[in-house]
Amino acid sequence: MQVYGNIATPIEKRTAKSGKEFFTFRLAENNGKDDNRTTTWYDVSAFISELDADLLSKGQFVKVTGRLDIQAFMKRNNEPGASAVVLASSIEPVERKTRPADEGQ
User: Fold this and answer.
1) pLDDT digits (tens, 9 = 90+) for 23-42
2) Type and span of the H or E element at 52
3) Spatial contact of 5 and 28, defined as CB atoms under 8 Å apart
4) For the whole prediction, is pTM greater than 0.85?
């Protein structure tokens, strides 16, 4: 799958039980505009190089390619919940395209 959105949290370096290092962050994908705008949140886990992670920062608009994994959990009120996790194979900074209404301003 591919998802486009803004990096919403600082990128954290973590270590798996196997000893391999990976990076995590939250991604906000916005759809619609104004009163019809909705945001879908994803947790992203990526086994990318330190150099690649250094090119990414909070607020940056990126394309994330990977596999979607839905993980169930229990909320604090003991109700079931689920989170969308993207196991990323690549993360690329991209420039937002200018909408026709924005041109000339």
Assistant:
1) 999 999 998 888 888 999 99
2) helix 50-54
3) yes
4) no
